[in-house]
Amino acid sequence: MCFISKLIFLDKFSLIYKFDLFVDEGVSLKGNLHLIERLLKNALSNAGHYARKEITVKLQKMDDRIELSICDDGPGLDADELQHFGEKKYSRKLTSGSVEGHISIGLGSVIMKHICSLHQAQMGLENIEAGNVRRGAHLKFIFDA
């Protein structure tokens, strides 16, 4: 794996996020460019809402698949949020742990799930834990190479 760059991003709330981008050499994603860009925009936007200071993005080849991982150091998700990620909620919910306490109906995750379906890709979400303490969230997309 080759470390590409460190990016510093200053968002509208004056929070600084460090993006670490790692890409295996010779790896590229195949698919509709507009939809892949939308997938990344939604995933990074979600990570940005919840990250305290750091978001890590990795693109790596694993056998005959390509995995795109986005990890943040935010509060993670509760069991219900994990179970229903990618499903539209029928009422608005003030999300806990987000920087500005934004209200969500989960449309961004629904769009990501649909884009994955169109690309025959898989989407997974899990908490990052150390001991019994949540240390963030790990969103991954797995595409055929």
CATH topology: Heat Shock Protein 90
* End-to-end CA span: 16 Å
Question: What's the shape?
Answer: globular
Q: Provide the gyration radius in Å.
A: 15 Å
Please identify, by name, the CATH architecture: 2-Layer Sandwich
Largest sheet descriptor = 6 strands, mixed
Tell me the total number of β-strands: 8
Question: Could you please describe the fold and organization of this structure?
Answer:
- The protein has 145 residues and is an alpha+beta fold.
- The chain has a single domain, classed as Heat Shock Protein 90.
- The protein is 25% helix and 41% strand.
- The protein is globular and about 35 Å long.
- The relative contact order is 0.20.
- The model is unreliable at 1-8 (pLDDT under 50).
Keywords:
Heat Shock Protein 90, disordered N terminus, 145 residues, alpha+beta, 6-stranded mixed sheet, 3 helices
